[in-house]
Amino acid sequence: MPAQVDLVTSESSEPTVGFWRVFFSTFVTIFLAELGDKTQVTTLLMSAESHAPWIVFLGASSALIATSLIGVLLGQWLANRLSPRTLDKAAGCLLLAITGWLLWDISGF
């Protein structure tokens, strides 16, 4: 089993992972996850319908920033109260539950 890397030094709360590494990792992950999803299709349609692409861009960007801020703040709050192992297990269980619910929904039961 590989050794687990601690992202926080024992002497301070400064992260040992570089800013740009975390930034680009986050950017690429979110960019790929959002590419072609319903949000992108919705903004495409709203832009085409309104003929105001920059206003749609500003509104969509603000909404994504707001939801990201909620996620970051909630993640920080949870990280201060739960262990990383507990968070991993909870996230896995939540994703399994969503998958089960989606499978149940499409199967028509």
Short description:
With about 110 residues, the protein is mostly helical. About 75% of the residues lie in helices and about 0% in strands.
Can you walk through the features of this model?
The protein has helices spanning 19-34, 38-50, 53-79, 84-107. It is 73% helix and 0% strand. The protein has one domain. α2 runs antiparallel to α3. It contains 4 helices and no strands. By secondary structure, it is an all-alpha fold. The protein is flat and about 50 Å long.
Layout of SSEs?
Layout: H1 19-34, H2 38-50, H3 53-79, H4 84-107
Characteristics of this structure?
109 residues, mainly alpha, 0% strand
Helical content band: over 70%
Helix/strand-derived category reads: mainly alpha
**How much beta, percentage-wise?**
under 5%
Q: What characteristic shape results from the CA principal axes? A: flat
Count, helices: 4
> What is the chain-wise order of helices and strands?
HHHH
Q: Which spans of ≥5 residues are poorly predicted at pLDDT below 50? A: none
The termini sit apart by 41 Å
Number of strands: 0
* Main beta-sheet annotation: none
